[in-house]
Amino acid sequence: MSAINNRSYEPIPLKDFKVKSEEEMELISKNHLFNMNLRHTIRDFSNKKVPFSIIKNCIKVACSAPSGANLQPWHFSIISSKLVKSKIRKAAEIEEQKFYDDLKKDEWLKVLEPLGTHADKPHLEVAPWLIVVFSERYSQLSNGEKRKNYYVPESVGIATGFLITALHLSGLSCLTHTPNPMGFLSKVCNRPSSNKASLILAVGYPANNAKIPLASTIKKSFDEVVSVF
Asked: What is the pTM of this model?
C-alpha cells in the first residue's frame, strides 16, 4: 500500500487497447450477453473440489476493478477449511433465524417467499470455497498512520461484480449471502477494525440435482430499467 501512497502523477501511454470493428464489437457484446444470461444464483452445491488457481485468477480479476482514487479498498478472505466454514455457517444461521423470527420484517419475508429462502444455510459448508468480501474503510500505512479510503461501497460493489462475472465465465456458480449483522465474519477471518464484511460468496459447481426458483428467472425488461437521452 505504501507504493500507492508515495506515487505522484506520471502519465504513461495506453498500450493495451485494441481497436475493434463495429461488427466485432457487436458479436462480442452479444456473446457476452448470451453467456451472462446463463448465470444463475444457486443454493444446491456439489462438494466437488475447485482448484485454488481458478479462484485466485478470479480474485485477480476483481482486484483489477476501478476504485476511488485507485485506493482499492477491499480484502478477500478465501476459505476452504471445513472448520472455518462450519464456524461461519453456525454464526450465520443464528443471525438468519433471528431475521426470520422477526415479525417486523413480514413485508420483506413476503418478497423473499418466491425464492424459497430460509434460515438453514448448508451451502456455507457444502460449497468448496467461501469468499468473504471486506470493505476497508481506512488503510493502515507503514508509518502507523491511518488513511481514509473514499467511495468504498461503490468500489467494493464494482469489484464484487467483476468477481461474480469472472467466476461464472470460468465455469463456476456462486451464491451471494449477506447475514445481518455480519460482525462475526471479522472475528472468524481475523480482520482488523478497519474492515467491514460486505458479503459472503459461496463458490463451486452446482449439484447434479440443483434447482433454481422460477421467480429468479424473471427479469425486468430493458425499457423498464433504461432511459435513453
From this structure: 0.93
